[in-house]
Amino acid sequence: MTRRPLRAYLLWLVLATLLPGVVGASLLFIDQYRKSRAQYERNTMQTVRALVHTVDSKLLQAQAIAQTLSTFDALQNADFERAHRQARQALQLAGPDMSAVLRDRGGQQIFNTSRPYGANLPIEPTEQLESVFASGKPSVSNVFTSAVLKRPTVSLDVPVMVDGRVAYVLSVGVRPGYFDDMLTPKSVADGARASVVDAAGIIFARNISPELFVGKRVTDPLYRALLRAREGIVPSVSQEGTTLLTFYSRSRTTGWHVAIGVPRANLNQTLFEPLAVLLIGVTLLFAIGLWLAWQIGGRLASSVQGLTAPAVALGKGEDPPRFTQTYVRETAEVAEAIGAASRLLGERAQALAVKEAELRDAHRMARFGTWHLTLATGAVETSESVPYIYGRELSPYAQQRGTLLPEESWDKVDALLRELARDGGNGRLQLQVLHGEGHRIWIDMHCEAVHDDEGRVTAVRGTIQDVTDRVNAEEGLREADRRKNEFLAMLA
After folding, report:
1. Following DSSP, what letter does each residue of 147-195 receive, concatenated?
2. pLDDT at 349
3. Are the CB atoms for 168 and 160 separated by under 8 Å?
């Protein structure tokens, strides 16, 4: 007959007691995951639909501008130079990503606000142009490359009526930057790929790497889905090759689409993080039950086995030794286990110290730091990397004016801090500071208000990162782009 320690039977009893609960918790975990995913999909689809409405609104806004321009008296009188001048003035108020073109029935551009009046302009006969002349109704084009600007463009075409007939077509062309203000982190989750797509499946605006993918067709899985249904959810792959779950919807008004692709890794992280509390709770209860069984079993075993020596001594007729658990095997094993655990904790503490040192070094290498400002005293607490970034120790906030913060940067920071102290919330600034060695550096600052138990803002905390190299690189890219545009303008 196999004999087992009392502790083993206690452990089995606890396992048998907890097993139904563990199974139930697992089923609850699965059900909660399904509900969370369904809710996430509903929320994301609502966001996509809202963005579709925004696309319609912006396209119809551009169309309304075109219709307004088409009513100018100068067009009725064939005073195209004055019409060109008036259109330019009007579009300057609408934004930098618009231009107006007037064409005749043959497609000859009469004027183009992106070029001086009288410049040589191309002939652009299109089916859409013929359709507007034939129907007398406005039309929205798909994405095409402008013959003048050589850039992806969308045209909102409206008829110009003279003496009751369509004499010309006035087109307002918009460029991808026209949609930049809608594809922001406020509407698109971090890491997600959001695109504005025309009726033919061509990307016109994108929140990530638009310079690489605007003007290209969406990937095949998404394109087939766009042809199949007005809206839906489809597994796909991004232009960069990332596996996505893509949510898309098509406008009933313009036929344009909005698609948001969420990386699978981001989706799983978003869904599992709320469920982690449930998982940790179940695991903790399971571990506590096993730990209690282990402790109780150990005490019972030590009490029983502690009688062995006295019983042997009594059988030999000797005086029973003094009863003590010190000499019992289970007690020695527990002491040995505690010693091993202590050594293991020491090793882990040492490893944790090494990791913390690596984190501090990583902050220095990334030129990243954290800070905390107490509003009542102006005292500033920072991570060790902040003085390294600034090349100096930080003084209280009020003393940073003109020392760490130039006047223009001080005004921005002070205005943001006052706003956060008044309204709460968070903010972000990119500004210049004075390095301890005398030169200026660029920093990217994120911050948020800290509230006390009564909801009052008592402090502001945040992060900074030295982005001087990035700012200089972006400035170099803008300069190169400007020179390229000047060169292309000369060629045109």
Report:
1. TTT-SEEEEEEEEEEETTEEEEEEEEEE-GGGGGGGSSTTTS-TT-EEE
2. 66
3. yes
Residue 312 has pLDDT above 60, yes or no: no
Whether 240 contacts 234, CB under 8 Å:
no
pLDDT band at 334 (very low <50, low <70, confident <90, very high): very low
Q: 445-468: per-residue pLDDT in tens? A: 999 999 999 989 999 999 999 888
Amino acid (1-letter code) at residue 272 = F
> What is d(CA 45, CA 476) in angstroms, rounded to the nearest whole number?
39
Q: Number of helices and strands (H, E) in the chain?
A: 12, 16
Q: Is residue 34 part of a domain?
A: no
User: How many Å apart are CA 320 and CA 312, to the nearest integer?
Assistant: 8
Question: In this structure, are 198 and 265 located in the same domain?
Answer: yes
The candidate with the shortest Cα–Cα distance to 102, out of 162, 175, 59, 151, is 162
Tell me the per-residue pLDDT of 17-49, one tens digit each, with 9 for 90 and over: 767 777 777 777 787 778 888 888 899 999 999
The arithmetic mean of pLDDT across residues 87-110, rounded, is 90
Q: Are residues 164 and 260 in the same domain?
A: no
Q: How sure is the predictor about 481, in pLDDT bands with cuts at 50, 70 and 90?
A: confident
Q: Is 441 helix (H, G, I), strand (E, B) or coil?
A: strand
- Specify the amino acid at residue 369: G
Interior/surface letters 323-348, b for 16+ CB within 10 angstroms, e for the rest: eeeeebebbeebeeeeeeeeeeeeee
The stretch 283-295 carries a mean pLDDT of: 73
Tokens matching residue 159: 């008829």
Residue 417 DSSP one-character state = H
Place of tokens 């010190």: 326
Q: What is the pLDDT of residue 7?
A: 65
The enclosing domain of 399 has a CATH number of: 3.30.450.20
Residue the block writes with tokens 């596996």: 243
The pair of three-digit structure tokens given for residue 368, joined into one six-digit string: 């990243």
Q: Distances from the Cα of 22 to the Cαs of 16, 210, 279, 288, 407, in angstroms? A: 10, 48, 10, 13, 62
Domain range for 388: 367-475
Whether the Cβ atoms of residue 125 and residue 131 lie closer than 8 Å to each other: no
- With CA atoms as reference, report the closest residue to 246 among 487, 47, 415: 47
> What is the torsion angle, in degrees rounded to the nearest 10, for the CA atoms of residue 29, residue 31, residue 32 and residue 37?
120
Domain-embedded: residue 357: no
Coil vs helix vs strand at 250 = strand
Displacement of CA 17 from its chain's centroid (Å): 45
With vertex at residue 478, the alpha carbon angle to CA 141 and CA 212, rounded to the nearest 5 degrees, is 45
